[in-house]
Amino acid sequence: MSDRALRDHVAALIGWEDAHAGLEQVVDGVPPDQWGAPAPGLPYTLWQLLEHLRLTQHDILDFCRNPGYTQPRWPEDYWPAEPAPPDDGAAARSIAAFREERQTLAALAGDESLDLFARIPHGTGQTYLRELLLVADHTSYHLGQMVVVRRALGIWE
After folding, report:
1. How far is it, in rounded angstroms, from Cα 4 to Cα 1?
2. Is the omega angle on the peptide bond into residue 75 within 30 degrees of 0, that is, cis?
3. Which residues pair with 127 in a beta bridge?
4. Number of independent structural domains in the chain
């Protein structure tokens, strides 16, 4: 029996926007000076959330593909050190890297040579399917937080 439908659903889930705002909508139109702006009552900036998404997604992809994987330090290696981007192009570079690795994860989901239910050989019981679902869930959660930050900053329509 083919698992094509499951693979297609998981690949779509990586960038799904059916039930919530997706990356494109969340990052579109953010003024450059607002990426590092503190939002009243919130402990993180848009930059911190965006970069956390990129760093975490990169880590999950690395875990899925790299037999020599070493887990980064929590939380230091999963969050940017500063609340604002280091330069004017940093947010755009982070978005581009996130998009590229999101596509790689979607392709991984669609790769029929990969058993989605197989345990990752260098893991501790995690399967490829679990990691793909984890990245989709994690991304959805933090995109929602980015919407809240944009609303608090008055830059969400």
Report:
1. 9
2. yes
3. 119
4. 1
CB 147 within 8 A of CB 21: yes
**DSSP character string of 86-146:** SSTTHHHHHHHHHHHHHHHHHHHHH-TTS-TTSBPTTSSS-BHHHHHHHHHHHHHHHHHHH
The mean pLDDT value of the chain amounts to 95
Distance of CA 114 to the CA centre of its chain: 22
Please write the tens of the pLDDT for every residue from 79-125.
Answer: 999 999 999 999 999 999 999 999 999 999 999 999 999 999 999 99
d(CA 8, CA 154): 37
CB 78 within 8 A of CB 55: yes
CATH number of the domain where residue 85 is located = 1.20.120.450
Q: How far apart are CA 2 and CA 156, in angstroms?
A: 42
Q: What's phi and psi for 119, nearest 5 deg? A: -75, 140
Full domain range(s) for residue 69: 4-153
